[in-house]
Amino acid sequence: MPKPLDQILAIADEPIAVTPPRSKASVLLRWPSFAEWHELSVAHRKLDGDPPAELIARTVAICLSDADGGRRYKDEDIPELMKTSPRTLMWLYVKCWETVLRNDEKAIKDEEGNSDASRG
């Protein structure tokens, strides 16, 4: 039996905590809106080679979450994000794609299986 829409949408409600290497503090990654996700997906598909620094920083800015699940960094904060250690920024970028931006079938099934909504 298919899940009700509210249960499906509840999967994306909670930010995901990740802890960068050599850090004692975790950061939160948020599930972007469909429009944000689509914008990033299209921008990355159009690439011929490595993503430019601005796209990497924009991706991280869209994914980093405040405690309430909103964007921690706005577009005007991207230049400041680009001053972050390259190792940290790239680690966050990879984590974004491994978690909240991932869109393959396995990722969807994993989220359905791990969500509170799927247990109810």
Description:
By secondary structure, the protein is mainly α. Helix content is 50%, strand content 7%. The chain has helices at 5-10, 34-45, 53-63, 78-81, 86-98, 105-114, 116-119, and strands spanning 16-18, 27-29, 64-65. The chain has a 3-stranded antiparallel β-sheet. The model is unreliable at 115-120 (pLDDT under 50).
Please describe the topology of this protein.
Layout: H1 5-10, E1 16-18, E2 27-29, H2 34-45, H3 53-63, E3 64-65, H4 78-81, H5 86-98, H6 105-114, H7 116-119
Antiparallel strand pairs: 1-2, 2-3
Helix pairs in contact: 3-5
- Give the distance, in angstroms, between the N- and C-terminal Cα atoms: 13 Å
Question: Order of strands across the widest beta sheet?
Answer: 1-2-3
> From the helix content, strand content and strand pairing, which structural class follows?
mainly alpha
Low-confidence stretches: 115-120
Mean pLDDT: 84
Strand percentage lies at 5-15%
Biggest sheet: strands, sense, closure?
3 strands, antiparallel
